[in-house]
Amino acid sequence: MLFLTAKDDLSDKIKGIEIGGDDYLTKPFAFAELIVRMKSLLRRANQADYQSTIMQIADLKMDIGKRTVHRGDKPIKLTAKEFSLLQFLLERRGEVLPRSIIASQVWDMNFENDTNVIDVAIRRLRIKIDDDHDAKLIHTVRGMGYRLEAVDTALDSKPSHEAGNV
To answer: When you count CB atoms within 10 A of the terminal residue's CB, does the N or C end of the chain come out lower?
Structure first.
């Protein structure tokens, strides 16, 4: 919170900060100073939000503030675009995401059916995220798009007589 006020006594400034103000600017002020102080407040607010944002599914953990990704104990190095793609998938985990939505949200572009940009990016992400693990997290939903989901493989690995098929 930024206080803009004509009260310029030291006691007023102290009181403003003590009651929750982040900054205190007295009138008259230069417009450029107001802009710089507002940018500073926004930057601090954004840093505070990112520092505490950790997203996780199964053993995959993404720290937005630190821009790190781990699968189990193994760090995974991603390009900026791969990081954005994984973050988008994590934010919408469990949802089937059509290529057009991924293209517009991650690449900020309209999807063209004759491009394989999304498919290539998903494949590269799968290599880094899924290839060394039995439990796959990135799934293709044929004709619809992609989904990030932790599937319980215990059901798939049961012998057929336990699953009710004799």
So the answer is: C
Residue 7 identity (one-letter amino acid): K
The CATH number of domain 54-153 is 1.10.10.10: yes
pTM of the predicted model, to two decimals?
Answer: 0.62
In three-state secondary structure terms, 2 is: strand
Considering the domain 2-51 in this protein, what is its CATH number?
3.40.50.2300
Residue 151: phi and psi, rounded to 5, are -95, 135
pLDDT tens, 74-92? 999 999 999 999 999 999 9
Which residues, given as ranges, of the chain have pLDDT below 70?
Answer: 46-52, 111-114, 152-166
Check if the beta carbon of residue 129 is closer than 8 Å to that of residue 138: yes
Q: How far is residue 21's CA from residue 57's CA, in Å, rounded to a whole number? A: 37
